[in-house]
Amino acid sequence: LPQRLATLAAAAWEEARQSRQQLQAQRQEVARLQEQLGRARQDGERWASALQRAQREALEREATRGAEQARQQELIRDMKGRLLELLREKDALWQKTEGIDTPMPSPPPRDAGLCARCRKDFRLLSRRYNCRLCQGKVCHACSVDAGKQGRCCLLCYQQRHPQAT
């Protein structure tokens, strides 16, 4: 019996030692988990403050964008109003000029040595051009290259192309 008690006592001591070791390991694990929990809480607080800051900035940007959009809409409204004013003014001017006849180009001068418009003398360096519309002789400064139609004097070109003036 004493030997059996000694064996049981030794087994109990061994079991107690293992239990202490397990308890110590579990305490270390709890400490490590508490430390991780503390870091996770700090990270959560940082993320929460970053989120609040980002939300504030987004609201500020949205307010700024709304104000800018309102300003642009007001500018567009003003520009449309100005466009309507200009169209009315153009119509009024068009009605005033509707009855006015366009003057015919003056007949070309009989002197072939002078420009029909500016009366400049043709020389070696000042070239003479024939107007394709009125057949007058004009210098380079008083003529326009009308593309496929050839050169013509400024007056004929302005009469043919009133939008160019």
UniProtKB/TrEMBL annotation:
Highest taxon above the source species: Eukaryota
TM annotation in the entry: none
SUPFAM superfamilies per record: FYVE/PHD zinc finger
Keyword match Magnesium: no
A molecular function (GO) term: zinc ion binding
Record-linked CDD domains: FYVE_RUFY4
Classification via Pfam families: RUFY4
Presence of keyword Coiled coil: yes
Keywords, in A-Z order: Coiled coil, Metal-binding, Zinc, Zinc-finger
UniProt domain FYVE-type: residue ranges: 109-161
Residue ranges of coiled coil: 16-43
Protein name, UniProt field: RUFY4 protein
